[in-house]
Structure formats: structure tokens, C-alpha cells
Amino acid sequence: TGAKAPAPTQEQGAQVAAAAxxxxxxxxxxxxxxxxxxxxxxxxxxxxxxxxxxxQAYQASKALPDSFGAAASSPAKLHQQPQINAEExxxxxWKDAQAARRAAPQGAGKINSSAGKDGKLxxxxxxxxxxxxxxxxxxxxxxxxxxxxxxxxxALLGEERQTIYFWLGRHATNLERGTAAVLATEMYxxxxxxxxxxxxxxxxxxxxxxxxxxxxxxxxxxSGQRPEQGGCLPEGARLxxxxxxxxxxxxxxxxxxxxxxxxxxxxxxxxxxxxxEGGARGSIxxxxxxxxxxxxxxxxxxxxxxFAEAAAGAPIHDIKEGEEPAEFWALLGGRADYPHSNTGA
Length: 345
Description:
The chain is α/β, with parallel strands linked by helices. It is built from eight helices and 14 strands. Strand 4 (147-156) and strand 5 (159-168) form a beta hairpin.
């Protein structure tokens, strides 16, 4: 329907179904102009997604901030999704996590370094109407301007299981989101004949069982789109905030490169501008907020080590709040006010 046209009534929906030879109670969805969900657009091969750039910019200007304080766009939700067996996913991964936690000598609340290593993991990024498989070094590195499909194959109670995720970056286009959903569904229907679990994952709403499949310190969300040459260390200085409500859900998300992004209740990793893939002429700075938890500090250490390994051994400097060197503030563009709290944000 047009952008300002009234929504069809239930009776009109029944008439549409009858005209198509369907039962009168068949589900009928209507789609408004400029709010087409991605899965709708994938049925039209000549769809020009660029024509909505101005409209999407307007949406972004009206959007509410996300949990990291950044304005998030509000694309239409995907309709007509296949049934998602999220209960099986959560239950299976929870059992795995519980078993790993019982086996860990440190006990509950600690990061288990073996998590996510028992299964087979394959990750693809959406490019056009196809999926491009990522090399092992990039698994767990997502860009918020892209959409991905993740296949996790594992054994549970002696049986082979599969979970298919499609992860949707908050700045990915509607077409990319829809393509990820369609291709994940095709994999579900054709390769696994509907026996796998299928799970939609929106950025900033990642469930703990999704983060767990990548292992500790391996789930990092970067801003922008994946570089064409690949790699898990985008160019330039970048600041990452650690989110670790539990050992299973820890991950890092890139935030604005400014001192106002800091928070006493969190830990951050600051990658220098010259820390690049396979080489390092700079350092990685790990900043501990005074009120950050031991779990967040441990998670930040793991992420910093992941960056250091990718940069062929870049040095890591551990910095406590209140003891920052001049280099730290210079990379952030100078000092600025930021939240000081006794608990994590």
C-alpha cells in the first residue's frame, strides 16, 4: 500500500486470499511503501535499494539511541519468518555451558577458555545475493554495516546438532538483511531438511548461546562494513567497549573514538592507528574503569590479546582509570567528561 494509505481490513484480506484461491482464513500481510521488509525485496531481482537512502537517513535522524548511546536505524521487521526453534538452541547451548562450567576448576562466573572449541563453525557475509565464506581468522568479527549467516555444528547428548544463525548489523540495508534471512532459510530447508535450529540475531540483542560458539574474546563488533581485503583489524584508531553480563555472553563493540565514550563502570580496549593486520608500529591500550568487574577486565584482556595476535605481537599496555598516559588521551582527541559510576553501564 502507499505510505499514507489506511491499513486493509480483515475482510479485505479475506477477499485477497479468496481471489488467490486460498482459504478465507489464510494469513495475509500488507506492506507499506518505503517500509518494505528485506525478505519482501528479495523477491524482486531488479529492486533498487539505493532509492531509499534519503528515507533511511530520515529514519536514522528520528531513531532512539541504542544501548551504547548511538542512534540506531529502525528498519521494518522481517515478516513471514520461518518458525525458529530458539528453545532448542537455548536449551542445548545452556547444557553445554553448564557442563563446561562444572569442568572448569575456577568454578562459576569465570571465563572458560575451552568454550566454543568443541564444534565446527562456518561464517559467511552477505555480498549481493550470495554468501562469501570468511577465513578462520575472521570468525567472530562482525561489522555493523553487514549481515551474516553462521552455521554451528556440534554434538549434544551423543547426537549431531546444527544451529543456523543470521546476524543482522544495525546499519545493514534491508536488502542485505532479507538476503541473510532467505539464504539461512534455504540452508535450513535444503541442506538440513528442517532438522537444524534456526535463529535470528539482531545486533545488541545477541543471546549468550550465540556469543558462546565463538569462544572467549572472539566476538567483536566493528563499525562500518567489512573491508574488501578482509581482516579483523580495521584501519585507524578504534575504541571498543566490553559487554560481559555473564561469562557466556562477553563481547566487544566499537564505540565513538572520544573520551566521552568511557565509563568508570566498564573496561575498554583502544587500538592504536598503526596496529594493522600482520604488523604493529603502535600499541593496544587496555583501560580499566574503577568500577568495572573482574569479568569485564578479564574479557578486555582476551580481546586485547586477540588484536595483538592479529597484529603480529603488538604490545598491550594495561591502564587503570586515573593513571592514563598522554598517549591515551591524545588518541581520544583530548580529555572530556564521561560517566563516573559505581556499577557497570
